[in-house]
Amino acid sequence: MSDQSAESVFAGIVDHRGAERTTDGHITACCASRDNSAFAFATAEGDLIIADRADLKSPDKWTVVEAHDGPIPALAPDVAGNTFLTGGEDCKLARVSTDSVETLAKTRRWIEHVATWAGGKTQIIACATGKDVQIRKGDGTTLLRTLEHPSTVSGIAFDARGKRLAASHYNGASLWFVQSKDGKPRQLEWKGSHIGVAIHPGGEALVTSMQENELHGWRLSDGHNMRMSGYPSKVASLAFTRNGRWLATSGADCVVLWPFFGGGPMGKPPAEMPGIPGVLCTRVATHPTQELLVAGFANGAVLMIDYNSQRVLPVCTGDGDAVTALAISSDGCTLGYGTENGRIGLVNLSSDS
Fold first, then answer.
1. What local confidence, expressed as pLDDT, does residue 9 receive?
2. Cβ burial, residue 119 (10 Å; 0-12/13-18/19+)
3. Which PANTHER family does the record associate with it (predicted)?
4. Coil, helix or strand for 6?
5. Beta bridge partner(s), residue 21
6. Could you give the CA distance from residue 86 to residue 198 in angstroms, rounded to a whole number?
């Protein structure tokens, strides 16, 4: 990274485009609501902090909701409106708003992952509990199917059309057709512990992060294996860019971008976006409409990067505690981040701010 970029990390746009607040507990996840009117942060204390977009610069108006008895490892936008779905170590799936908490289901194991998809008349909720993934209707209370896996599910993701659901687990991943009646997934095998999953926006590939400081991928047209290695630490966060040309990842002191065009990523080196020398990138998020990505680092700093020009815009300074949650709303107008010591921030990215 250039000296200019390194120095610029000491000031950030949150000062004039947003606000920060500190809450109790490690921030485990964050996301915008389906209608983008609200943003939520989940904590290891069982609370959900919800901010209305109109109150983005007024952190004293952000609402703290006691959603679970214990940590909230899973958070997703609800299938409609401004509510959120949470999964807790109390084994509950809940629908949460600023003024209510509705328990939708109680499972036998912790709910560690929740994903949702909505389009047209179709609304689907998926939640992972132990080796199982439950597929539910949009009401959350109606169980449609239970997808069984050979080991504990470590990540889930819907494809862009909501037709398929990917689940990572030990020795590979399973790819399910959500509406299929035969109950059999496509098995994508690779020995080792797979700890997270992402699907290419065009459905061309599935990629998992691994315990062994590398990524593994499968080209879905023919099952061809793709191995992406060389990281100094585990890849805790990965996200495809809006058109699927690049896969952005954490795990190094820069943002690593793997090319998914021109035959890549096999046989092609990754691009390295600017970072903070000697400080690991811990979270990445990609912008839904522009050629931008956002990266959070182990010292608490957040940078916005144009991955074509490699220009860097600091979002916030670091306070010494790692960024553990990072998300951009689906309309690209709101950025949220959270750290392991409970610092949360919201930034207005819209052009009229």
1. 40
2. exposed
3. ANGIO-ASSOCIATED MIGRATORY CELL PROTEIN, MITOCHONDRIAL DIVISION PROTEIN 1-RELATED
4. helix
5. 344
6. 20
Contact 246, 271 (CB under 8 A): yes
Residue 247 structure tokens: 């896969």
Which domains does the chain possess?
21-118+125-148 (2.130.10.10)
- Closest by alpha carbon to 328, among 254, 242, 215, 201? 242
Residue 19 gets the label, from left (phi > 0), alpha (psi -120 to 50) or beta, of: beta
Q: Which of 219, 260, 269 is nearest to 241 (CA)?
A: 260
Give the phi and the psi of residue 4 in degrees, each rounded to 5.
Answer: -60, -45
Cis peptide before 274 (omega within 30 of 0): no
Residue 188 forms beta bridges with which residues?
A: 173
Strands 343-348 and 18-22: antiparallel
Q: Provide the β-strand partners of residue 276.
A: 279
**Torsion angle of the four alpha carbons 123, 126, 127, 131, in this order, in degrees rounded to the nearest 10:** 160
Q: How far apart are CA 129 and CA 133, in angstroms?
A: 6
d(CA 267, CA 283): 26
Residue in the block written with tokens 């007024």: 58
How distant, in Å, are the alpha carbons of 6, 22, 312 from that of 344?
23, 6, 21
- Alpha helices in the chain, H assignment, sequence order: 3-8, 14-17
DSSP assignment letter at 90: T
Range 169-173, long-range pairs (CB < 8 A, 24+ positions): 169/131, 169/194, 170/194, 172/208, 173/197, 173/206, 173/208, 173/218
Q: How many CB atoms lie within 10 A of CB 9?
A: 23
Looking at residue 91, its pLDDT comes to 98
Tell me which residue of 82, 87, 83 sits closest to 35, measured CA to CA.
82
Residue 122: how many CB atoms within 10 A of its CB? 15
Ranges in the chain, pLDDT < 50: 1-10
Q: What is the pTM of this model?
A: 0.95
Looking at residue 353, what is its pLDDT? Answer: 57
